[in-house]
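Recall the central idea of this unit: under ordinary conditions, the amino acid sequence of a chain determines the structure it adopts. In this exercise we apply that idea directly, starting from the sequence alone.
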Amino acid sequence: GSNFPFYFAQIAPYFNYQGMLPYFQNIQKKLAKAIPNSEMVVLNDIGEYYDIHPSNKHDVGFRFSQLALKNNYGFNVTVSGPIFSHVKNADNKINIFFTSDNLKLKIISNSTSGFEIAGSDKKFHNATVKIIDNYIEAFSDSVYNPVYVRYAWSDTASATLFNEDGWPASLFSNE
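Accordingly, the structure predicted from this sequence is:
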């Protein structure tokens, strides 16, 4: 009968989910919103593709501790990365907006941004992204008039979007 906090870890990237990990992670995000007094720790930046249980327990524990410090003890600490809010279409680009403690966005470069966009046909293509003020502009030569965007939408997606405190964004899609 008490309002006990329930914190859980998002399933980390792993090569053997047969393309279903984004759907599992998305359901986890929805559960965190539906279950009172619960929150999810994002792990898409510390997973190991060939080990279902990431060995970096330190960062996982740190993120859980920050949740408890903020939610249960009133500390003013960051507890999440950028949280997808909405998109706005702008010619051949799509602008992606976020909420999260008003912290600046950061993109860590690797071989891909992790962002994909699609037109009304829902055929997704890798997107080039730029941070403009505190939103992201995404575009691709393969997509005229983009409508849909998704981020980190694969079994082995690694985080590229963070806030200035180093917290990763979870996957998202506006499909």
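Residues 57-73 form the longest helix (17 residues).
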